[in-house]
Amino acid sequence: MKNRKTSLILSFAAALTVLFSGCSGKKESNALSIAVFVPGIMADSPTYANLAKGVQVGIDEYNASITDESKKAKVYIMEAGTNQAEWSTKLTALAADGSYGAIISSNPSIPELAQEIVKQFPEQKFVLLDGALDGNQNIACISYDQKEQTYLSGYISGLLSKSHKVAVVAAQEYPVMNNILYPYYALGASDAVAGTTCDFRVVGNWYDGTKGAEITDALAQAGVDVIMPICGGAAQGVISSAKENGILLSFIDENSFAKAPGTVISSCSTEQALASKEATLAYLNGKTEWGKTKTVGIKEGYIKFIQDDPLYVSNVPEEVRNTMSSLVKQLTDGSKEIPQL
Predict the structure, then answer these.
(1) Which pLDDT does position 206 carry in this prediction?
(2) In this predicted structure, what is the pLDDT of residue 29?
C-alpha cells in the first residue's frame, strides 16, 4: 500500500510538471548545474544550512580556475519546508524540470524517494548525504557512521540516567531509524549501565512540536529521564517538556547545547559542510562512485562528540566526561569498535 501510494504521488507530481512546463518543451540537462534539495528550512537547521554552504563552496572552488563563463558550474537551492508530505512532489518536480545534472540532498528518507523518481527520470543523478542506498547507478550516498553517533549518545545517557530508563523520540520509522539509530542508542545505554531500558516513540512527522511535547510528557510519567530526539522541528516540543519534567536530552548531528542549557547533556556533530563540498567536487570532476554508499565517521573526522563546549563542561560531571573522553579516544584510534547487533 505504501509503495502504491508513493507511486501515485510521484505520478501526480510528474503530471503537474508536464502540465505547467510541457508547452515550452523539455529543457536540456546541464551536467554542471546542481540543484540542492533542502528537506526543511535552512534558517531552522544548521545541518541543512551547512549542506547548502558546502555545495556552494565546492562550486566556487571548481569555478575558480575556469575563465569561460559557459563552462562554469551553477547551483540552485530549493527549500522544501518541513511538511514531509510535500517532499516527494517537490523533488519529482526538480527531476522533471530536466535542468540539473545532479540533485544533492541530505536526509535518511530521501534515498527511498529518489529511487522511485529515477524510475520515471532515468537520466537524473542524485548525491545524497546522511542516507544509505546501494545498487542504484543513479544514486550515490554518503552515510555518517550513525552507529558511533547513537552509541555514544546512548552511553552518556546511560551513565546519567538515574531511573535507568531512556528513550528515543523519532519523527518516523524508516530503515536507518529501526536498524541503527534506535537499537545502537539502546545498546550504548545498556553497555554503560547494565539493565538500562530504552523506550521508542514516534511523532509521525518532522514538525509537530505539540505532539513531541505530549510524547515527552508521557515518557516522563513512565519514569524516563533521558531522551534522544530525532524529530526535526518537533524537537522543540520535546525540549519544552523536558525542561518542565527534568528530563535530560542527548542530540546527534549538530551542536545543540545552547538549545537548552542544563538540559542537553551531549551533542554529536557531523561535518556536513565538508562532506557536501567534497561530494560536489567529486561530482563535478567525474569521480562520484555511483551505486554505492560511502560511510564516514570519527576516524575520518566527519563525526565529533563535542567535549569542549562550556555547557558540556559545566553541566556534565567530570567523572562522566573522563569516561566519555576515553571512549571517544578508543573509537578514534581503533582500539575499540562499536559492538555489532
Answers:
(1) 84
(2) 56
- Band (pLDDT 50/70/90 cuts) for residue 174 is confident
Q: How many CB atoms neighbour CB 255 within 10 A?
A: 17
For residues 318 and 220, give the distance between their C-alpha atoms in angstroms, rounded to a whole number. 26
Quick one: which of 146, 129, 177, 100 has its CA closest to 268?
146
pLDDT band for position 151 (cuts 50, 70, 90): very high
Q: How many Cβ atoms sit within 10 Å of the Cβ of residue 296?
A: 18
CA–CA gap between residue 303 and residue 48 (Å, rounded): 16
Length of the chain: 341
In the chain, which ranges are continuous DSSP H helix?
Answer: 2-21, 46-63, 87-97, 110-120, 146-160, 175-176, 182-192, 209-221, 235-245, 272-284, 310-315, 318-333
The alpha-carbon radius of gyration of the chain (Å, integer) is: 21
% pLDDT > 90, the chain: 82
Are 116 and 219 a contacting pair, CB within 8 Å? Answer: no
Strands 264-270 and 303-305: antiparallel
Q: Over 70: is that where the pLDDT of 55 sits?
A: yes
Who's near 193: CB < 8 A, 6+ residues apart? Answer: 158, 159, 161, 164
All residues at 6 or more sequence positions from 178 whose CB lies less than 8 Å from its CB, including other chains: none
Residues pairing with 112 in the sheet: none
Closest CA to 233 of 204, 199, 263: 204
Say if residue 44's pLDDT is above 80.
no
Nine-digit cell at 319? 567523572
Average pLDDT over residues 262-271: 96
Query: Buried b vs exposed e over 202-227: b needs ≥16 C-beta within 10 Å?
Result: ebebbbbbebbbbbbbebbeeebbbb
For the segment 180-203, the average pLDDT, to the nearest whole number, is 98
